[in-house]
Structures are given as structure tokens and as C-alpha cells.
Automatic annotation (TrEMBL), chain A:
Matching Pfam families: Cyt_bd_oxida_I
Membrane topology type: Multi-pass membrane protein
Protein name as catalogued: Cytochrome ubiquinol oxidase subunit I
Keyword field: Cell membrane, Electron transport, Heme, Iron, Membrane, Metal-binding, Transmembrane, Transmembrane helix, Transport
Signal peptide: none
Single biological process term from Gene Ontology: aerobic electron transport chain
Cellular component, GO, one term: cytochrome complex
Organism: Mangrovimonas cancribranchiae
GO MF assignments: electron transfer activity; heme binding; metal ion binding; oxidoreductase activity, acting on diphenols and related substances as donors, oxygen as acceptor
Cellular location(s): Cell membrane
UniProtKB/TrEMBL annotation, chain B:
Organism name: Mangrovimonas cancribranchiae
Signal peptide: none
GO cellular component: cytochrome complex; plasma membrane
Residue stretches spanning the membrane: 6-34, 55-74, 80-100, 112-132, 174-192, 213-235, 247-264, 276-298, 318-341
Protein name: Cytochrome d ubiquinol oxidase subunit II
Keywords: Cell membrane, Electron transport, Heme, Iron, Membrane, Metal-binding, Transmembrane, Transmembrane helix, Transport
Keyword DNA-binding in annotation: no
NCBIfam families, per the entry: cydB (TIGR00203)
This protein's encoding gene: cydB
Cellular localization per UniProt: Cell membrane
Entry's family note: Belongs to the cytochrome ubiquinol oxidase subunit 2 family.
BP term (GO), one: aerobic electron transport chain
Membrane topology (UniProt): Multi-pass membrane protein
One Pfam family matching this protein: Cyt_bd_oxida_II
Phylogenetic classification of the source organism: Bacteria, Pseudomonadati, Bacteroidota, Flavobacteriia, Flavobacteriales
């Protein structure tokens, strides 16, 4: 039983981590493609249309990867987490079924038209199909975050005698206080990913002195989108999300921030330190007094509960993992703001395209938004443990009762092998498209 | 309310089989009958703009199953654990094959992805038939061993096969001679279906050859159906029980028969689209007749200790199901609009180059 739960959790963590590498780019990139196409319609300068078509190829490749790695996510609820599905399907099935009906059909129907239909449709309708693909991908994110929010902060339900959760208020699912901050935070994070990807490709072109016209366009668009999204992701949305955690999941908040003891007269904010769960303290701590209290409650001396105030059985299962995930996300987020501000200063001084160190920097930042988004997702998910539905259903109660650990291990290994292959192929093809570059006035 | 969602779910599954079915069929034909590069291109172009959206019906149907019948979802997905994960891998492999083949022009690369696309299509068609067989045959719910139920009444687990290969034993496997027969029917039926789609969408040299192949395969299909109807009694003692009690259900077998008759008389209609229409009717009728024969059961129990899963004991709560109706109707109207737009833009036959590169 222990083994099985471990493999089930590993499998879900592995498949969702891999899966989320793709939608986080497609959601942000679809917005930027719509921007390029819109720019083309307004200015009639071919460069913008060619740029839209170039990113469309990357988008299509990412989208296909997102779809094929997304189907297993839905299946796994039933195959590996049957008990959880049976008990909560009447509620989270609602948002997941809506995702299928409202967003997947929209995305897949119009992506086909967007990819194959430019000549058949003309530019205006082609723009509309692009916009609908964008709308579909953002609706999909919304419904997934709605599902996620219900698991973090269950609303609109009652529990029957047989343990089943039933819905009694449909609107509550969408007015969940957890939903809007998480959604905005998440969408901005995906715009950050696409900004860094677009500017990294642009920097690559400029440094290699090829496709320089597009290199300039990509770097410029990337850093402008990048500075806006990386500031907004921290404030107000990140701040808002953290306050939600402090309010509704105080034990999670304590673990995230690495607070083992409640302090009178306000809590410090930990910049660096390694949680030592055995001795219940933070090793090698560097912290600034009272700032956390202020950030959370706008009072320098507000009290923040430490882990010592809670039952150990309600502690997040993996305190160091949660703490590091959160701190990596916040640390990277801060770096993103810094880099994007610098790049914009250079852009404003009209020196960006010639500042080599800046271009190298932008290029090498490529993997980091992915790491930040993944650790952000881990913060949310590890923070919810040991619960599947916060405070109501434990993870240990959710797994499939009839599937043995041998089977879950077998399928876990199968997924690892298959996804390694997919990852390699993806990198190869994305590299090929990027290397070939946008085609001038291609028809 | 349960009945409404049951009809919705079955319709979505039938639509899925009809739509993705022709993709699978195209894959099988690609594997066995497309020798020339030009033919291969014609086949993949004929499904190029559609297969992605077709596959969404599976995901959406899965979502509806999860939401409307959570107990059935939990029971069957964990019970059929291995085949479902294998189906997932095959779907992934097939999609990757389709997407990647044209990206690099190299003989070996193309051959690898051609085979990946063809073989996974073939296996998927087989597995979907086998799956239908499992639903009809039923499973040992609660895994009753020597009169004792080892799990909660609605949980079970099936291995891929057991050594006896028999549909009438306590320890069933996913594949036995009965489910395998339905698997073969699935392969033949979807091959015909896919061929008809290609005939409908292309002007390739392949078309005349495919017409001959379909004509012969129709006889094979008819033979297999007759055999399976004869042995159905072994699995389900009263296979026509529902039809005798509820005469209007005969609509479904009649649709099947119209489909089969049409398939044999396609030449009367001079236009290439009719073959596809009739194979769609056949698939729709065949699927709905099969599920109608076990209604209201959705997963029969092969033991007498634990009750069958029916639409009534696996459904979600009334309130959830009834709010769902509102958004579902809005969504279905939107989906109908999307599909109309999509199939109108890419209507008719393709020219030789398909719909352009992307």
C-alpha cells in the first residue's frame, strides 16, 4: 500500500510536470501570436505576419505535445486515483468535463483552421481563428485552475453519509476566492515563459547575425511583454495568492516561509536557510525582521503562526520540498524582474540590440521560467499535502483499491521512457524550426 | 436525469468512434495498402486537419463520464488499468507519428513514423473492439474468489489475459477468444470505414484499389457479425431480451442493417461520399444496438454476489447532473458550429497537394 501510493504520486507528479512544460508556453505564446497578427493587420508590414507564422510552427509543435501528454492526466484520475474520482467526481468532474467541451473543441477546431487555412480564409478571418485558439487555451487554464482551487479550498459541496462529495452550488465553483488570484498568477507566469522564449530566440539570431530583423523584433517584443508580466506576477497576483495561503492554509504558509516557531512582535522574512525538520529549525538562516508580517498583514508586528502551533499529522508531507520550491520560485521571479528591467532600460536607450552581455543573458535565461513555473506548481501541490481535498480527504484515502504497486511501477517506467523519447524529439524539432528561422514573405 | 446523461455519453462515444475511427482505418490502410509515397501523402493529408479535433471527442467523453458517472469511471478505469494505459501510449505514439513524419526528409525517419502511425492505429482499432467485448461480457465485480468478495462491490482488476483464454471463468482477462473476436470485427469495420473516408476525400490512384478492397472486406465483416451474433448467447443468455420488451429499440439494429446494405450497394450511388455515410451508419447502429442490448447495465457482473453496474447506481447526484444540462447544451451548440465551420472550409476533395504545408 505504501509503495503503491508512492508510485501513484510519482507518476502523477512526473506526468504533470512534463505536461505542464507545454501549456505554459502555448498559453503565453498564443497571446503573442495574436499580437503579431494584429500588428500585421494594422500596419500591413509583412514582417509581423511572418513572425506570427513562425511562432505558429513552434506553437503547433508545443500544442501537439501538450495534447498528447494531457490525455494521460485525465485518465490517471480514474486509473490511479479511483477512490478520489469516485468520491469527488460529481464536483471536479463538472469543471473537467467543461474543459473538454468548452476549450478543447475550440482550440483543436480552430488550430486546424489557423494552421492550414490562411489562404482559404484571408487575413482577417485568419486573425479571428488565431484569437479563438488563444481564447480556448486560456479557458482551458481557467477550468483547470478552477478544479485545482476546489481541491485547495473546497466550496459549494456537501458530504453524504457514504463519504461522497456532492455539489450543491454550481456558482460557488467559479466564485471560489482561491480561483481568481491563482488564475491570474498562473497566466502571467505563462506569459513570462513565452516572453523569455521569444526574446531568447531573438537574442540567438542577433548574436549569430542571422535573421537579424526578426531577432530585433523578437527581443523587443519579448522584453516588453516580459517586464510587464514579471512585475505583475509578483505584485499584485503573487502577493494576493500568498495572502490566500496565509489565510486559508496557515500550516502550509508556515512551512513555505520556513517558520518553525511563532514569534511575538512580528515575523521575519527568510531569504536563505535550510529547513531542518528533525530539530525543527532553519539552518544557516539569513532573514530580515518583521518584513513577512508586513507583507502578509500590512502590520509590522502582526503574528504569524509557526509550525509549532499545529498538529504534526497535518504538517505538509514534504516540508523541505515545499520550502525550496517556494523559495526557488520567488528567487527566480525576482531575478526575472531585474533582468527584464535592465533589458528595457537598454531598449529605451536604443542599445539593447548591441549589448552582447544582455543578449547572452536573455538567451541563457530560457530554461529558468520553466523552472520557476514548475516550482510554483509544486508549491501549490506540496502545500496541499497531506490532503487531496484540503482538510477533508487525505491523499492516502484516494488511490485505486484494486491496482497493485507492480502495475503502477510498470506504467511509471513506461511513461518515463516514452516521455524521454518525446522530449528528445521535441528538442530536436524545435531546434530545427528555430535554426531555420522565419521565412521572409513566404507565401 | 441519469438517462439523459447516458444518452449524451453514448452519443459522444459513438461520434468519437465514427470520427477517430476513420483516422484509425486510414492508419491501417496506410500500413497495408499504401506503397507509393504519393498514396501515403494522400492518406495522411485526408485526415490532417481533422484528427486532432476528432480525438477531442474521446477526451470530452472521458470528462462527461467522470462527471456524470463517477463510480463507473473509478471502477472501470482502475479495473481496466493496464489496457487503458496501453491505449494511452498507443494514442501518443500515433499522434507523434503523424506529427513528426513530415518534419525531416529522411527515408529511415519516414519509415519509422509510418510504421508507428500504422501499427498503433491497427492496435487501437483492435483494442476498442476488445473493450466493447469486455463491456458486453461483464467482469467479476468485487473480484469474487470462492464465494468471497475481495473488494468493495464495484471494484475489480483484470489482467491482460489469463492462460485459459476463456470468457467463462472466474478470473477473467481483458483478452479472451470472445473479446478478441470483437477486436477483429473492430479492425475490419474501421478499415472499411477509413477506406471509405479516403475514397471520399481524395482522387488518388489508390481509390479504385480501395474500392475493390472494401467490397471484399464487406463480406468478411458480414461473416464475422453473423458468427458473433450466433455465439452471443454464450456470453449473454438472453441477448434479445431488451429488444423484445421495448420494441422501439429495434431502431438501432435497423440502422445497422441499412448501413450494411448500403455498404454492399455503394455503386448504385455514383458519388464517393456514400460509402462513408453507410459505414458511419453501420458503426453507429452497431454500437448503439450493443449497448442497448445490455441497458440499463453499463458493466454487467459475471458473479451473482455483486450487483451489475447500471446507470442508476453509478451516477452523480441529481443537482450536479441537472446544472450540467445547461452548460452542456450551450457547449454542444458551440461545438456543432465549430465542426460545421471546419468541415465547410476543408470541404470536398483535396487537390493533390492537400491543404498546404504548415
Amino acid at each position: 500500500m505504501e509503495d503503491m501510493l508512492f508510485y501513484d504520486r510519482m507518476q502523477f507528479a512526473f506526468t504533470i510536470t512534463f505536461h505542464y512544460l507545454f501549456p505554459q508556453l502555448t498559453m503565453g505564446l498564443s497571446l503573442m501570436i495574436v499580437y503579431f497578427k494584429w500588428k500585421f493587420l494594422r500596419t500591413k508590414i509583412d514582417k509581423y505576419n511572418d513572425a506570427a507564422k513562425f511562432w505558429m510552427k513552434i506553437f503547433a509543435l508545443n500544442f501537439a505535445m501538450g495534447v498528447v501528454t494531457g490525455i494521460p492526466m485525465e485518465f490517471q484520475f480514474g486509473t490511479n486515483w479511483a477512490k478520489f474520482s469516485e468520491l469527488t467526481g460529481g464536483i471536479i468532474g463538472q469543471t473537467l468535463a467543461m474543459e473538454g467541451m468548452f476549450s478543447f473543441f475550440l482550440e483543436s477546431s480552430f488550430l486546424g483552421l489557423f494552421l492550414f487555412g490562411e489562404k482559404l480564409l484571408g487575413h482577417k478571418l485568419h486573425f479571428v481563428t488565431g484569437f479563438l485558439v488563444f481564447l480556448g487555451s486560456w479557458a482551458s487554464g481557467y477550468l483547470i485552475i478552477a478544479t485545482h482551487s476546489w481541491m485547495q479550498y473546497p466550496v459549494g459541496y456537501e458530504i453524504l453519509e457514504n463519504g461522497k462529495f456532492v455539489l450543491n452550488n454550481f456558482n460557488a465553483l467559479f466564485s471560489n476566492p482561491w480561483l481568481l488570484p491563482s488564475y491570474l498568477h498562473n497566466q502571467l507566469a505563462s506569459i513570462i515563459t513565452s516572453s523569455f522564449v521569444v526574446s531568447a530566440v531573438g537574442a540567438f539570431y542577433l548574436l549569430n547575425k542571422k535573421h537579424t530583423e526578426f531577432g530585433k523584433l523578437f527581443v523587443k517584443t519579448g522584453v516588453v511583454f516580459g517586464v510587464i508580466s514579471s512585475v505583475l506576477v509578483a505584485f499584485p497576483t503573487g502577493d494576493w495568492t500568498a495572502k490566500n495561503v496565509a489565510k486559508h492554509q496557515p500550516v502550509t504558509f508556515a512551512a513555505m516561509e520556513g517558520i518553525f516557531e511563532t514569534e511575538d512582535g512580528g515575523s521575519e522574512i527568510v531569504l536563505i536557510g535550510q529547513p531542518n525538520v528533525l530539530e525543527k529549525k532553519l539552518d544557516n538562516k539569513i532573514a530580515v525582521p518583521n518584513v513577512l508580517s508586513f507583507l502578509t498583514y500590512q502590520k509590522w508586528d502582526a503574528q504569524i503562526k509557526g509550525l509549532n502551533e499545529f498538529n504534526e499529522e497535518d504538517y505538509p508531507t514534504n516540508i523541505p520540498g515545499l520550502y525550496y520550491a517556494y523559495h526557488i520560485m520567488v528567487g527566480l521571479g525576482t531575478i526575472f524582474i531585474g533582468i527584464m528591467l535592465l533589458a528595457n532600460i537598454q531598449l529605451f536607450r536604443k542599445k539593447l540590440y548591441k549589448t552582447k552581455w544582455m543578449l547572452w543573458g536573455l538567451m541563457f535565461m530560457l530554461p529558468f521560467p520553466y523552472i520557476a513555473n514548475t516550482t510554483g506548481w509544486y508549491t501549490a501541490e506540496l502545500g496541499r499535502q497531506p490532503w487531496l481535498v484540503y482538510n477533508l480527504l487525505r491523499t492516502t484515502e484516494g488511490a485505486s483499491p484494486t491496482v497493485s504497486s507492480g502495475n503502477t511501477l510498470f506504467t511509471l517506467l513506461g511513461f518515463i521512457g516514452l516521455y524521454l523519447l518525446l522530449g528528445l524529439l521535441f528538442l530536436m524539432l524545435a531546434g530545427k524550426i528555430i535554426n531555420k528561422g522565419p521565412q521572409l514573405n513566404q507565401d | 436525469m441519469e438517462l439523459f446523461w447516458y444518452i449524451v455519453l453514448m452519443s459522444m462515444l459513438a461520434i468519437y468512434v465514427i470520427l477517430d475511427g476513420y483516422d484509425f482505418g486510414a492508419g491501417i490502410i496506410h500500413l497495408f495498402f499504401a506503397k507509393k509515397e504519393k498514396d501515403k501523402k494522400a492518406i495522411t493529408n485526408a485526415i490532417g486537419p481533422f484528427w486532432d479535433a476528432n480525438e477531442v471527442w474521446l477526451i470530452a467523453a472521458g470528462g462527461v463520464l467522470f462527471f456524470a458517472f463517477p463510480t463507473l469511471y473509478a471502477s472501470s478505469f482502475s479495473g481496466f488499468y493496464l489496457p487503458l494505459i496501453i491505449i494511452l501510449w498507443l494514442l501518443i505514439f500515433r499522434a507523434v507519428g503523424l506529427e513528426l513524419r513530415g518534419q525531416i526528409h529522411n527515408k529511415m525517419w519516414e519509415t519509422i513514423w509510418d510504421k508507428a502511425f500504422g501499427i498503433s492505429s491497427l492496435l487501437l482499432a483492435l483494442f476498442f473492439g476488445v473493450a466493447l467485448g469486455n463491456v458486453v461480457r461483464g467482469v467479476n465485480l468485487g473480484n469474487v474468489v470462492n464465494g468471497v468478495s475481495t473488494h468493495e462491490a464495484h471494484y475489480f482488476f483484470l489482467p491482460l489475459w489469463n492462460p485459459t483464454f476463456s470468457p467463462q471463468t472466474e478470473q477473467l482477462g481483458i483478452i479472451d477468444w470472445f473479446t478478441l473476436l470483437l477486436g477483429v470485427i473492430g479492425v475490419v469495420a474501421l478499415t472499411i470505414h477509413g477506406a471509405n473516408w479516403i475514397i471520399f476525400k481524395t482522387n488518388s490512384d489508390l481509390n479504385n484499389k480501395l474500392k475493390r478492397i472494401v467490397f471484399n472486406l464487406n463480406f468478411v465483416l458480414l461473416g464475422l457479425i453473423v458468427i458473433s451474433l450466433l455465439i452471443w448467447h454464450i456470453i449473454e443468455p438472453k441477448p434479445f431480451h431488451n429488444f423484445l420488451n421495448t420494441p422501439w429499440l429495434w431502431v438501432f439494429p435497423i440502422i445497422t442493417i441499412i448501413g450494411v446494405l448500403g455498404l454492399f450497394n455503394v455503386k448504385v450511388f455514383k458519388k464517393d461520399g456514400y460509402g462513408f455515410l453507410f459505414s458511419s451508419l453501420f458503426l453507429f447502429g452497431g454500437l448503439t444496438s450493443t449497448v442497448a442490448s445490455i441497458f440499463p447495465k453499463v458493466l454487467p457482473s459475471t458473479n451473482t454476489i455483486n450487483p451489475d453496474l447500471t446507470i442508476y447506481n453509478v451516477a452523480a447526484d441529481y443537482y450536479g447532473l441537472s446544472v450540467g444540462v445547461y452548460w452542456f447544451i450551450i457547449a454542444v451548440v458551440l461545438v456543432a458550429i465549430y465542426f460545421t465551420i471546419q468541415y465547410r472550409v476543408f470541404k470536398g476533395k483535396m487537390d493533390n497537394v492537400g491543404y498546404g504545408e504548415h
